């Protein structure tokens, strides 16, 4: 008897220890709100970011049946999520969280007062089922599609007539799986123009930040007929021989009731592209002239570009609505065909004026400066050959380049010269196989100061005292005064 009681007493501490361990494990698993989390079958994730606004309600794509296995179509899940969350637009806005995983989806549209947030290990995979890509009419300022005379496939992430929309994350990825589309394009099997990755139309207060875009079917980011756009800290990568994979293409901007002018700010972006890294446009020939919406007040800074077959920054060639007040600074371009390129032609009409570029670092270029008035691509034969573009007030300064084949190719239009060109404080190191004539100039007018190698006679050197002659506005644009808020969320999802 005594022996039995002794055994019970000896075993008691071990039982207590085991119970204590179990309780600790339960507490660890459940956490401070673990009982509620287990009861509802939810997992809580929290994250923070900066944005133009912070929404009040949040949900995960998994709450709407999303499956991130890289195979299941999530097009319906994204549409259902946006539709459900749109009811919070007037109640502080909403946010849709995309957790880690590979989420196959076709095109889907966002709504106002909405944030799409991608986890750092989230990948949106563009569907290769063409039934998941609705077809839109051509842009009214283009008159036709870029790839075909008809309409265009809706962009992967799309929206029209929106306000306060954010696409951001922790550098999650949007993969356009472009080779599917590039092959069809090269084989002439597309009836409609290829989709873009992100496009917003007739919208204002838009932010696209901290995401990585890869292998777009065509252009990557296209805000069009829109105002007050912030594009910040994004990475864009496409094979350098992929067709028309422009990085960021700000199009025509429109006035809104809230703002008297339009603004776009692009900063801290890294782009490897099969076309222009930044392409500024405003409509094509008679369609752009008729639509009459210029692209104005654009700021580009701290851009790194690689594009062996195109430009770091291109203005045109579709510039028939006009381009004005573009400011670019602190630009690095490596293995890029040209630094700044202006493309236009007879029949374009419109204007490119008040362009300001400073502090460029360029390595291995075909041309540093390239302007052409002979870019003859037209949407159809109905353009007016007497619609001549106005190119004036082009300012470049504080530029260093090395391994350059030709310093500049500046070709205006006979009877319609490009005027008020100013280039100062520019040093261009020529490549071993440089062209015999580093500068070619026709139908251009302007001045230079402190430029090496010496420019053409149409741009006479004004001497070192004019080295700061080329203008760069001191007054910041309104978009540069935007103050971002710090947003934080706790997301419960299955």
Automatic annotation (TrEMBL):
Keywords: Glycosidase, Hydrolase. Coiled coil: none annotated. Belongs to the glycosyl hydrolase 28 family. This is Polygalacturonase. It comes from Hibiscus sabdariffa (roselle).
């Amino acid at each position: 008897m005594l022996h039995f009681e002794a055994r019970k007493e000896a075993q008691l501490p071990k039982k207590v220890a085991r119970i204590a361990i179990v309780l600790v494990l339960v507490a660890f698993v459940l956490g401070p709100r673990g009982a509620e989390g287990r009861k509802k079958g939810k997992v809580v994730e929290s994250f923070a970011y900066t944005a133009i606004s912070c929404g009040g309600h949040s949900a995960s794509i998994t709450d709407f049946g999303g499956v991130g296995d890289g195979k299941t179509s999530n097009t319906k899940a994204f549409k259902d999520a946006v539709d459900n969350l749109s009811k919070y637009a007037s109640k502080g806005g909403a946010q849709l969280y995309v957790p880690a995983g590979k989420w196959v989806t076709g095109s889907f549209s966002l709504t106002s007062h909405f944030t799409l947030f991608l986890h750092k290990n989230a990948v949106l995979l563009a569907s290769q089922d063409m039934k998941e890509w609705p077809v839109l009419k051509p842009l009214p300022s283009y008159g036709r599609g870029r790839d075909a005379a008809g309409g265009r496939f809706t962009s992967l992430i799309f929206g029209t007539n929106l306000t306060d929309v954010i696409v951001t994350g922790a550098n999650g990825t949007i993969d356009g799986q472009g080779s599917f589309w590039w092959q069809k394009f090269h084989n002439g099997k597309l009836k409609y123009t290829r989709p873009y990755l992100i496009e917003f139309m007739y919208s204002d207060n838009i932010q696209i930040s901290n995401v990585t875009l890869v292998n777009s079917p065509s252009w990557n980011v296209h805000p069009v007929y829109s105002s007050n756009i912030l594009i910040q800290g994004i990475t864009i990568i496409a094979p350098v021989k992929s067709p028309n994979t422009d990085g960021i293409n700000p199009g025509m901007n429109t006035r809104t009731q809230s703002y008297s002018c339009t603004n776009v700010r692009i900063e801290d972006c890294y782009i490897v592209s099969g076309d222009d890294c930044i392409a500024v446009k405003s409509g094509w020939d008679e369609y752009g002239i008729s639509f009459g919406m210029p692209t104005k007040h654009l700021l580009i800074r701290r851009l790194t570009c690689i594009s062996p077959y195109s430009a770091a920054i291109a203005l045109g060639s579709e510039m028939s609505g006009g381009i004005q007040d573009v400011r670019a600074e602190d630009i690095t371009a490596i293995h890029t065909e040209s630094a700044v390129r202006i493309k236009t032609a007879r029949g374009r009409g419109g204007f490119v004026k008040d362009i300001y570029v400073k502090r460029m670092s360029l390595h291995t270029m075909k041309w540093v400066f390239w302007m052409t008035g002979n870019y003859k691509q037209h949407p159809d034969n109905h353009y007016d050959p007497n619609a001549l573009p106005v190119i004036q007030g082009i300012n470049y300064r504080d530029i260093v380049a090395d391994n350059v084949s030709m310093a500049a190719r500046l070709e205006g239009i006979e009877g319609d010269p490009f005027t008020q060109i100013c280039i100062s404080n520019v040093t261009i190191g020529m490549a071993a196989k440089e062209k015999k004539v580093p500068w070619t100039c026709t139908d251009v007018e302007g001045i230079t100061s402190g430029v090496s190698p010496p420019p053409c006679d149409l741009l006479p050197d004004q001497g070192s005292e004019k080295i700061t002659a080329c203008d760069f506005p001191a007054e910041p644009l309104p978009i540069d005064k935007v103050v971002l808020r710090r947003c934080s969320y706790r997301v419960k999802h299955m």
